[in-house]
Amino acid sequence: DIRRLTAPDIRARKGGEPIVMLTSYHAHTARLVDQHADVILVGDSLGMVMHGMESTVPVTLDMMILQGLAVMRGSKRALVVIDLPFGAYEESREQAFRSAARILKETGCGAVKLEGGARMADTIRFLTERGVPVMAHVGLTPQSINALGSFKAQGRDRADWPVFLADAKAVADAGAFSVVVEAVAEPLGREITQAVAIPTIGIGASVACDGQVLVLEDMLGLTPWSPKFVKRYGELGPHIAKAVETYAQEVRSRAFPGPEHTYAEKKPAK
Ligand code: KIV
Ligand code: NA
């Protein structure tokens, strides 16, 4: 049975086997991730990772839909969640619904994700009541970089915890089926997980979260630098550099293409 996992399937995993989530922006990586992950996130981090942008702020809805389509084509089992980019949902619940509906209709994915806690609760309720499963995102919310000033861990002071806990509770009460908790002090990530009835998916949060997510290119070692919370499970950058170097040498020395890479002339039929 290769039915795709759904938002309710993920919602039901609270407190159970940890949820495995990774980002993917392309058909080829989606195919590989789909073999092991429960959720594939088409994150707006694609602006920084694929396009070299300095933040996720410039990412557009059309970019998200284009890469979301590629990931849907490349996968068949995981739940695909697509980020609503900055500017596509904050203005009103109606604007958020219009953007989310475009994503669901044009890509066929199963859910959207948006950043923000208590301030987004009305929007999350509006979407979920109208058939749009929403994954929320609290803690560090990178789309707010211009207001935050830097990408730094949140909730390092216990005095700040009530705000983050209230955010997580607000999105859960509003109907979010799960919530990403990004870059918070470990005990806060643990506490949020205990405080809400929906699965928490940590990235730089806590091993106690109900699941974990990483940016694929970070964990593969394709990015030159990655944050503290990334475990680099591979170092693909040097492998690619080596392959490109060897190719360049072989083109210049005429070692490539060899006979096995070229086509023989067809002998004329008698
Ligand atoms: O855009 C993204 O990759 C994300 C994850 C870091 C959760 O939102
Ligand atoms: Na994101």
TrEMBL record:
Annotated active site: 182 (proton acceptor)
Keyword terms, alphabetized: Cytoplasm, Magnesium, Metal-binding, Methyltransferase, Pantothenate biosynthesis, Transferase
Gene Ontology cellular-component terms listed: cytoplasm
GO molecular function: 3-methyl-2-oxobutanoate hydroxymethyltransferase activity; magnesium ion binding; methyltransferase activity
Principal location: cytoplasm
UniProt cofactor note: Binds 1 Mg(2+) ion per subunit.
Pathway: Cofactor biosynthesis; (R)-pantothenate biosynthesis; (R)-pantoate from 3-methyl-2-oxobutanoate: step 1/2
EC id: 2.1.2.11
Primary role: Catalyzes the reversible reaction in which hydroxymethyl group from 5,10-methylenetetrahydrofolate is transferred onto alpha-ketoisovalerate to form ketopantoate.
Record's protein name: 3-methyl-2-oxobutanoate hydroxymethyltransferase
